[in-house]
């Protein structure tokens, strides 16, 4: 299986980096092919900016939605150069808002397109990061915001564009997504509601919503204060997760 691992931690000596090393070794031992995207290593920009507008529109947008968002006006306002404005005005003359949206789609950011190529290559996805405030770190959350874009990770029916949640159209093809996260607090805190909240917001909406049927979330509880024995057990588990990536449900975690 081809596995793309997205890694989000700034410290190459961190527990998360050790998880990455052991998980990748497990994949290799099992004969899987893997690639790693180190978000800090490539200095990925997680901030959604005006440049990202083409990632969220295309010519399948209902005309009333495209008009509501003034796609034509946004194109003209995207530059202050008089010559460029004149050329743009000529290019979009006589075209509907939806047609202009389709033209803009070709101007998606290059770093997002590069991520799309890597994601298309993979059969399965893995994510390694700490939990910050019951979610992913900003750099990984921003990666999802920018990369999991319309007409790549999901589509919308006309009803979806008008607010009906049942109008979601999943587009990702991956067999499996494995999330591996380290935490400050112990399992008792997550048993008391934190894990169920993360499951709904991150696992369900972030990964099952775009079409990945098998989403597994493995927590390395209280890793920041773990004993050497506990850390060794966690890293052995990470290696097993890599080795068994294509064998269905993840094996049980070591006891608390």
From TrEMBL:
The keyword Repeat does not apply. Its EC number is 1.6.5.2. It is an enzyme of class 1 (oxidoreductase). GO terms for molecular function: NAD(P)H dehydrogenase (quinone) activity. Signal peptide: none annotated. Keywords: Oxidoreductase. The keyword NADP does not apply. This is NAD(P)H dehydrogenase (Quinone). It comes from Nocardioides panaciterrulae.
């Amino acid at each position: 299986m081809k596995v793309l691992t997205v890694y989000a931690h700034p410290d190459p000596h961190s527990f998360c980096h050790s998880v990455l090393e052991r998980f990748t070794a497990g994949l290799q031992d099992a004969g899987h092919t893997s690639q790693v995207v180190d978000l800090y290593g490539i200095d990925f920009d997680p901030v959604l900016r005006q440049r990202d507008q083409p990632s969220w529109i295309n010519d399948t947008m209902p005309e009333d939605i495209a008009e509501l968002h003034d796609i034509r006006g946004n194109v003209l306002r995207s530059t202050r150069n008089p010559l460029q404005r004149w050329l743009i005005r000529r290019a979009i003359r006589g075209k509907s808002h939806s047609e202009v949206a389709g033209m803009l789609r070709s101007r998606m950011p290059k770093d997002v397109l590069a991520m799309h190529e890597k994601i298309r290559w993979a059969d399965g996805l893995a994510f390694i990061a700490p939990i910050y405030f019951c979610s992913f770190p900003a750099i990984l959350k921003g990666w999802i915001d920018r990369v999991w874009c319309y007409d790549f990770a999901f589509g919308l029916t006309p009803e979806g564009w008008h607010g009906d949640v049942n109008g979601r159209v999943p587009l990702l093809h991956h067999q499996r997504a494995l999330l591996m996260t380290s935490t400050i607090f112990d399992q008792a805190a997550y048993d008391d509601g934190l894990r169920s909240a993360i499951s709904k917001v991150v696992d369900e909406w972030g990964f099952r919503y775009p079409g990945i049927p098998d989403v597994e979330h493995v927590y390395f509880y209280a890793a920041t204060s773990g004993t050497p024995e506990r850390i060794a057990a966690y890293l052995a588990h990470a290696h097993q997760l890599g080795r068994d990536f294509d064998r269905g449900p993840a094996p049980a975690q070591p006891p608390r």
